[in-house]
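Can't attach files on this board, so I'm pasting raw text. These are the components:
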Amino acid sequence: MNNELYEILRYGILGGSILLILIGLYAALTKRSLIKIIIGLSIVDGGIHLLLIGIGYVKNGTAPIFSPGFENSTANMVDPVPQALVLTAIVIGFAVTAVALSLVIRLYRHHNTLEIDEIKNLKW
Amino acid sequence: MVGSPVLLIAIPLLAAFLIPLIGMIWKESVRLIPGLVLAFMLVSSASMLLYVTNNSTIIETIAGWQAPWGINLVFSPLTGFLATLMIFLGFIVWLFSYRFKRNVDFEPAKKYFIFLMMLVAGAVGIVITGDIFNQFVFIEITSISAYALTAFYTGRNSAEASFKYLLMGSLSSSALLIAIAIIYSQLGTLNMADIADKMYLMPTGYKITALIFFFMGIGIEAEIFPLNGWAPDAYTEAPGPIGAAFAGIVVKAGVYAMIRLVFTLFDIPNSMQFLVVIGLVTLIVAETSAIKQDKLKRMLAYSSIGQMGLVFVAFGIGTAEGVFAALFLMLNHAIIKPLLFLSGSYLVFNSKEKKISEVNGLGKHMPITSLLFALGAFAIVGLPPFSGFWSKLSVLTAAANEGMILIIALVLIVSVVEIVYYFRVVNRIYFFEKSDNVVVQKPRINAMIAMLILGSIILVIGFDPDIVSIYLHKASHDLMNTREYIDNVLSIGQSLTK
Amino acid sequence: MEMIYLILVLFLGGAVLTWLLGKISPIIRDILFISSVIIPTVLFFMNVEVGHDVSFQVLGYKLSWGISYLAYLFSYIVLGLGSLASVYAVAAMKGKKNLGFFYSNFILSIMSMMGILLSRDLISFFIFWEIMTWSSYLMVVFRGKDVQKVGIKYFVFSAIGAYAMLMAIVIVNSLTNSLLISDLVSSFGSFSLSMKWLIPLLLLIGFAVKSAMMPLHVWAPGAYSNSPMAFTSMFSGALSKMGVYGMIIVMVSLVSYIPNGFWLKETIAWLGGITAVGGTLWAVAQDDAKKLLAYSSVAQLGYIIVGIGIGTPLAMLSALFMAVMHAIFKGNLFLVVGAIERQTGTSNLTEVSGLIRKMPWTFISALFSIIALAGIPPLGGFVGKWMLYESLIGSNHYLLVIVVFFSSTAAFLYSYKFLFGFFLGQEEKEWSHIKEAPAMMVVPMMILAVATFVLGTFPGLVLNPIDNGLQELGFASTQGRYWEMSALFNEWGNQVMLQPLVYAIIAVFLFFAAFLTIKGFKHTRYVTTKDISSSGEVPKEHENLTFSQNFFQPFLRAVEPFMKRRIDTYYSGIGNGLEAIFDFTRRIYTGNGQTYALYAVIFIVVLLMFKNALFGL
Amino acid sequence: MKKLIVILLLAVTGYFMVISFMDLGKDGPVVKNGVKDFYLDKTVSELKVANTITSIVVNFRGFDTLGEVTVLFLAATALGGILYKKRHHVGERSVLFPSSTIVKAGSKLLFPAIILLGVYVFVHGHLSPGGGFQGGTIIATGFLLMLLAYDNFSVSHKVLSYIESFAGIFFVLFGLSGMFMGKTFLENFMPVGNLNDLFSGGIIPIIYILVGFKVAAELTGLIYTVLNEKE
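---
Top answer:
Structure tokens for the assembled complex are below.
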């Protein structure tokens, strides 16, 4: 892979992750439906996971898996740690989303609406 | 070695997985096992605390890999002190809610106790872990338990409170992940001691950006000002004992994470001033918001936030004295605020709205509970000879020694506000006539014991604060000595920077 | 065990036991109560000596307890009045609810006052000060009347004062690294100029609140009249003296060393003078005896503050003497009102009259105290006031003399109103069943009445300890020559015994009184208020024609312009305004989860911008 | 109005993020010889695990995984708690219209294959890309497919919770047995074997299989709970 392509790919990953974070935040901050807010938060999570992967990327990197015959070639392996972290973060994000959705079901039962502006019995 | 810190995490996890199984056979076990686990944790943690106070810090490696590579648990005087405090409160909350309401079914009750136990385990994990990503995982464990506990009662607006909490908590975990990503990308390590050791290598711009994202992530847990909108709702709608657990356990863990960052990880002097400013803003906004509340628990929640602001101010003073004062404040707040929440939840037990006006004249009908509430109110506003006074005095002394006279004045003015709203409630309890439609609920014996334990601690610390000061001194020394922390953790393996 | 510890522990234990064991039976409770006041009192006077300090460490702060001569003087007030009031309280409060709570707070407040006097360092001083505040607060709200208004006002003002003090204390600690009062006094000279002003000012705010000085007095009337009278006697008599005690120490030991501190003294003196006038005028306007006495207390404390503010040895002597006298006669007057309220059910001067025949002993003790209050010889009030005038004139405060003199003359009006309203005037049928208060109440009142007489005749009894106290503060010893300091006594020379003269006057007075009484005995006719045979009008049934109705209307009309604006309204305006602001600011918690998320984003954006500004990219 | 503010804020945030994140990790960490080299080294030499990510997830940072499994367990429990009703209607799933026969038949056909794939993925977690989480998720997808296709397809909650609990308990017990054998928590105490053998890596594959079971059960339970929610 030549240098230019590598740069473009890297910028693509990082820029994409930032874009995802911003899109997610926009959804979470402006959409009025609870479901959409949760989707927004999930997008933010996705962006951050991409960011984590992006920082571990190295030029001409290969997956950090030692295939038979290549046991000693650690030189170009991408950083495995962010990948492990992302694995954990994805599961946690999933768990939080599940809880959030269940709360939305409860809220819908109670308020009969999904508009976040109308769910503010608790204030001040 | 007197014990193993990892058991403080592993045993509750084991129990949490076991309870659904045993609960199918023996129903009482779902209440009993968490108590036993918490008692075990308390004994183990307390004995380790005694050990580390007199000897060296306990460092436990996990999976056999030494400090910078594997995850390790650090049981130092500071973390041990906080962990013991949290476990103790968890035990008190368990004792209080051992039999909470008759109309709660078996299934929710089972989950309640699992979550309570995991809340404590998660908070203890936050405190004793030595790895920054591991801390993130424990924060999530604590948060999910907290969301579930907030939404425990189906009849109220609890889902709304829980959703707000979750919304903020979700942002918090995003911010934490970004911060962790920045740190890892620069330093290539996740171990706190290792990060602290190498922090000077990090470019200032990244350092501060990371710190800012950490502030946001942990600030949400630690309830600093613009990020604490969820807190009053969650405190109000959660079951009474859980409000106590939030005030005593969850927030303390957040505060710990924050100070660990500021004191150990990042060597940015301005962050101390930031702590002072943000603490003062939190203190003022929260206390002034509390004065016009008409719901008891909400008032207590705002007061709790305000106290956390004061804790941050005390930490922000930045001297060993300031840290001592802040830890003392945390200890007192962790004892007093749960007492207020627990006794307060009995005072408004049968009421639907949980209004302050419904506690009128209960002093005659539930004398001990009211007395304990009044004791808590007296202590939290810092009236001698109760424990709150000593911590407030320590904070002010520490601030005065640094010449922060304006801060002293502000803190004291806010204290007057605090006095106003607490005494309004106490007056209502004792000197008003009870209205007829309020049904008095006598506390159960286990709840009474739990509250009396807390009340007696307030008195004991109030009359002899030196009982705890040795641990606090050790802990503040521990926090101030970053180098010692790094050496302790990293000495068992060789440092990566050759 | 050190005697000081023992005394405080006995008080504390007594308070707890009275509350806990008091639930078993009232008799045990009463006995416990009285004995836990009396036993430590006896122990104190028998065993505690000046100059024997004990010290110990708490949280690294060095605390020290002991007693000074000045404090010893005040402990006479606290323990003497405390014992008498406690005996009185047992009888007066009989049958009321929640007595265990009342008694234990009573003991606690005595303990805290003793603690204040025993403290040789600022922290224990503050601790006991706060215990005194909240135990007295619980007494103020004890009857459940006006709790949120009067009680909160009292506590807020006390807290402001106490926190001002606390601020001074921690600053002192940071400057001298010690909390001992003696260290503060000795190193005060080395403080920077701003600290020299700040520390005494903050301390004075704390003491001024308790001694009800002018702009900080607004809690006093409500609090004094709201608590049970047995305690108000302590409250006004002894508790407010703690402020005086602190103020004396600050004024003499600290303010004297401030460059140009002279102005502070003048200001304090003038504030005292204004307090005296304002208190007196308001007292005249009251119809409720409790309120009347409460305002009168404020006024009397004003005189004391004038004395402290002037700061000459004679003024100090007079201030301290007046402090003792005020404790005795005002304590007694509150007891009198308590007795009347207990027997008749009201303390309103316009509702009850002609009690002189029903409650003669009460009348006599009230008479003594009122005479002392008004400053008429031969009772104790006169000595103090005379010395005050003299010190004012001696230090060229002529304007202040006029103010004080005006106020003390106006004090005659309310003294008269009090005495006349309750005891003289026509007798109503509906009050005919009233009897004298029980002996346990009358005896303490009579003891106090006799004390006013004794101290008026033998002022040296108190002036000796005062002299010791003043020496301790750094004034030259008068070596027993009090008479020489005051021109009054100089007139008759040092050798002339004052007592025979006084007795002669009294004998003549009594003789004439007896003569007139016997002479007029046959012709006396007792009428009710409705029996106005001399005038042509026929009163309606419900018209209130008591003698004290609309007392002093012309005078009040004359001073009305001065009394229009009450400081109270300003304070409540500030309070309400603040609460409105707080109510507004808490609306940032909008209740919308999305807004909270927005705050979080704003938070991070602001911080990132700060980062950019401070550190660059 | 609100949207404008948000866009403005996000623009600022985006600007800051771009200027501070775009160069993240460009030349690798400032500190060379970060933990990753150690991991890459030890994975082969000591643990004999081919997939470095697996070795990190299960061994080096195994404690995180334990926490993560707990998070999942808590989420499943929380879901049950939050959606708890006094009278629980099991099996009355709201179905707008039944699936077609093709979908039903196809699902039935695919289901075993999906399960098999999932099992393969988590059994070979230490050798090839994938592992317990991935495999568990794949298995859960199979159940999701069946639940969507057949409105009367039901999963036993009891069995799920047995699997969840036992998998969790064994995870912790494996960790603790490391301690009892005189080593540390979660440390490998079994023979590691040879690199790229199926039976290699000591306890790593065992734990990952446990994780796979747990995740599969947890996710299936989550899906099932939500699907059975009326309204």
